[in-house]
Design goal:
7 helices
């Protein structure tokens, strides 16, 4: 299992880093970044589960797959967060401002798409303008909070994937 979770965890981490950089520098939007990231994660988990099962006579229990998937996602997220922390410490203030403005605009666009009530939308957009800043977005606490917040999704995603992809041998009724 060790080689499988390391291999797929490193692939997921590398993809996460590339996608963050593409988003930060305006090559892709937040929505596309999220959709492609989820689809790639599903593909990687499926491939990892398939490889694991092929080494275990075609079978994998829920517990084995949950552990495998959790480790893959955790390694990928840890790599991405570590890179993000380092990147945030070396980029210029001008680049931070550009990324921040793109982030704020993508947040507002998402809310415009979701909310039709103009008063509510205006209130949300004002809140974003009042509460967000480049210092908050690129701060150590925000990045660390993002990682811990993602841990909840890691557990849920690993549980769901393990339930879907598990395959145990049929028991003889006698």
């Amino acid at each position: 299992m060790k080689n499988i979770f390391l291999k797929f965890g490193l692939i997921y981490g590398a993809f996460s880093i590339i996608s963050v950089m593409m988003y930060y520098h305006g090559f892709i939007g937040m929505g596309l970044n999220s959709v492609v990231g989820i689809l790639l994660l599903i593909l990687l988990l499926w491939l990892a589960g398939r490889e694991f099962k092929s080494k275990n006579e075609g079978y994998a229990t829920f517990g084995e797959l949950f552990k495998l998937y959790f480790l893959i996602i955790f390694i990928g997220l840890f790599m991405s967060m570590l890179f993000t922390l380092i990147y945030h410490s070396v980029i210029s203030e001008e680049t931070k401002t550009e990324i921040f403005e793109r982030y704020v605009e993508s947040q507002k666009a998402m809310y415009r798409w979701m909310i039709s009530d103009e008063d509510m939308l205006l209130s949300i957009e004002e809140g974003i303008d009042d509460e967000m800043s480049p210092e908050k977005l690129f701060g150590f606490q925000n990045t660390l909070l993002g990682m811990f917040g993602s841990l909840f999704y890691v557990i849920i995603f690993a549980l769901l994937a393990a339930v879907i992809f598990k395959k145990v041998p049929k028991q003889d009724p006698l």
